[in-house]
Amino acid sequence: MANTHLIATVDFCRYHDVEYTFINSLHEAGLVQITVVNETPYIAETELQKLERMIHLHHDLEINIAGIEAITHLLDRVEQMQENLRGLKNRLRLYEED
Question: Which residues lie across from 35 on neighbouring strands?
């Protein structure tokens, strides 16, 4: 992964006004991936949207790490089900066109 696609966690925390311990707790729960380069922790650019959603859940809705973990799991399941439904609809269209 190129360093241009990584954001230093210190910069991210400062910009979003969150403690590094919160980001680390999300990482320990397996919700966010942190990459360490030269002893400096970074967040991948692809993780930003997901991480910002978790910060919103925590700050605005006062949901703890366990709650964020449950919500994230449920949202992932809904997304998988939507993908399966799209695939089934596409397969069904093949039979309807005959």
Answer: 42
